[in-house]
């Protein structure tokens, strides 16, 4: 079993222009709309009034009944092409989430790539196989569906 980070990658084609899609993701409070209700995700505070490089965001969530506090920082901010957030404190040993947005005519290809690792060595790797990988995939599948519901033209197909 490797100690290298795991990678979760997801692409979604959204039938809206890049400026509109990026504007949605520029408001951290919209994360609550695209995070599954069973996670109990809530933003507690932000270090700046709007997101930019260096902004720290403090969250509260629940996973399997366990309360978790999480603090991330915006490491890179490149409107409307993307941004990167990293965990400063929370449940992961590593959390590096790259959000990319690519214009395709009047549509936007959104690409999420999360590099993550768990603490606790081999125990963390076992927990990843048994639970964390599946939980993260469920969260990102929910997110994909919510983004589709919020942005897509009625009757359009998720790509």
Describe this protein's structure.
The longest helix has 31 residues, at 121-151. The model has no long low-confidence stretch (mean pLDDT 93). The N and C termini lie far apart (33 Å). Strand 4 and strand 5 (82-89) form a beta hairpin. With 159 residues, the chain is of the alpha+beta class. The chain has a single domain (6-151), classed as Alpha-D-Glucose-1,6-Bisphosphate, Chain A, domain 4 (2-Layer Sandwich). The relative contact order is 0.22. It has helices at 18-25, 31-34, 121-151; strands at 6-14, 42-46, 56-63, 66-78, 82-89, 94-104, 107-117. Helices cover 27% and strands 41% of the residues. A seven-stranded antiparallel beta sheet has the order 1-7-6-5-4-3-2.
Strand content: 35-45%
CATH topology: Alpha-D-Glucose-1,6-Bisphosphate, Chain A, domain 4
Oligomer: single chain
How far the N terminus sits from the C terminus, by CA atoms, comes to 33 Å
State the low-pLDDT regions, or none.
Answer: none
CATH-level-4 superfamily name: START domain
Number of helices: 3
Main sheet attributes: strand count, strand direction, barrel closure: 7 strands, antiparallel
Topology:
Layout: E1 6-14, H1 18-25, H2 31-34, E2 42-46, E3 56-63, E4 66-78, E5 82-89, E6 94-104, E7 107-117, H3 121-151
Antiparallel strand pairs: 1-7, 2-3, 3-4, 4-5, 5-6, 6-7
Please tag this protein with its features.
globular, 27% helix, Alpha-D-Glucose-1,6-Bisphosphate, Chain A, domain 4, seven-stranded antiparallel β-sheet, 159 residues
